[in-house]
Amino acid sequence: MVYAFGGYVHAGKYEVEDIFFNIVDDTVESGYTSVQLEIGDKYFYGGGVSGEVAFMIPFKKIDWRIIGVKLSMQYEDGSYARLRKRLERINVAEDPDPFVFETTDFEDLAPNRISLNISATSEFIYRINKNSHLGFWSSMGVGNQIFTTAAGVYFSYDRITGILSSHASIPQGVIYSTGVSYRL
User: Fold this and answer.
1) How far apart are CA 39 and CA 10, in angstroms?
2) Nearest to 6 by CA among 95, 98, 71, 85
3) Residue spans per domain, the chain
4) Is the pTM higher than 0.85?
5) Three-state SS for 59?
6) How buried is residue 108: exposed, middle or buried, by Cβ count under 10 Å (0-12/13-18/19+)?
7) What confidence tier does 56 reach under pLDDT thresholds 50, 70, 90?
């Protein structure tokens, strides 16, 4: 059995392209108004804490964390978080001409600044030598009522770890991230 816990901070930006949609508008004959939302760079920052427990099968050079559970709590703010909050409040109307605008459902864009996530995890760790190892992990879980999957690879030397990962969900698409961590 393996236990892990920690905290983290993060920051970055999304490049938001044109967002066109129709909102319900009873004051006009068609019953809806077409809107283009602000575009450009949207920044975010935040932090969180997480904890994990996993069953491990050790081999000579590989540790296989066959199944685990990870619980995370995260706070996020910035212009991207404000955009998601604004989109959540929009009442989208059906467009009678499907070639003009694509109907979008914004209710799954995680508008809350604080989110909880619980995931099932699995991980392979290859021990290169005493001070370094290479790991591969995957997870699937639920956060903000959204089903998500994630996978990543990392390399650790002594107390420093570099990571490359991808996270995917139907409403949010695929998000790639990279980072460096230092173990105290």
Assistant:
1) 22
2) 71
3) 2-182
4) no
5) coil
6) middle
7) very high
